[in-house]
Amino acid sequence: VIAAAAAVAITYDLTKRVYITYIAYNPVLDQHYCGRTSGFKQPMDILQDRINRHHALNVLNFSVDVDVSIQGYPIGYWAVRGREQQNVDYFGGALLDPGRRPDATCVNRIRGVGKLNPLGYLYHWTSSVAWGEKYPYTGYGTTDIEELWSAISIFIF
Q1: Closest CA to 19 of 35, 43, 1
Q2: DSSP assignment of 90-127, as one string?
């Protein structure tokens, strides 16, 4: 009975979890903060839960809106990871990113996906398939999706 209940809970989580990215904007300072979160509600309700738990978004007068949302793991998780990084890059790069552009308006301290993350291009590629490429890939490592897929498929199937 416990195993069956656990299987139902895991299946529910894998199929029903909604992943979102959000963009917060402070028009007075012309600053953008990019983030991601997930939950089992509608995207705007998931975002409101995140805002309630995020001190900086409450204090620094950011207006926040859902950027994209997708349901299901692992594709949804991968796509949202990639989209968060594309958003950070689109707004100039994270504060500690050596590749940060001089005109950057992004106030994220660190990258959403580390430059050396071996799954970085998989996240980027999945996001680009789901919503179109918002910004070119800025990580290191392979950009051969077939090579990445064969490397990770042993863990999935």
Answers
A1: 43
A2: HTT--TT-TT--TT--B--SS-SS-TT-TTHHHHHHHH
Q: Give CA separation, 156 vs 59, 81, 104, 106, in Å.
A: 41, 18, 37, 34
Residue pair 88/108 in contact (Cβ under 8 Å)? The answer is yes
d(CA 85, CA 27): 21
Q: Under a CB-based contact definition with an 8 Å cutoff, are residues 14 and 3 in contact? A: no
70-102 per-position pLDDT tens digit? 999 999 999 999 999 999 999 999 999 999 999
Report whether pLDDT(140) > 90.
no
Compute the half-sphere exposure of residue 138: CA atoms within 13 Å on the CB side of its CA. 25
| Cα–Cα distance measured from residue 121 to residue 138, given in angstroms and rounded to the nearest whole number | 9
pTM, rounded to two decimals: 0.85
Give every CB contact of residue 57 below 8 A, 6+ residues apart in sequence.
Answer: 24, 33, 50, 51, 64
CA distance 101 to 53: 30
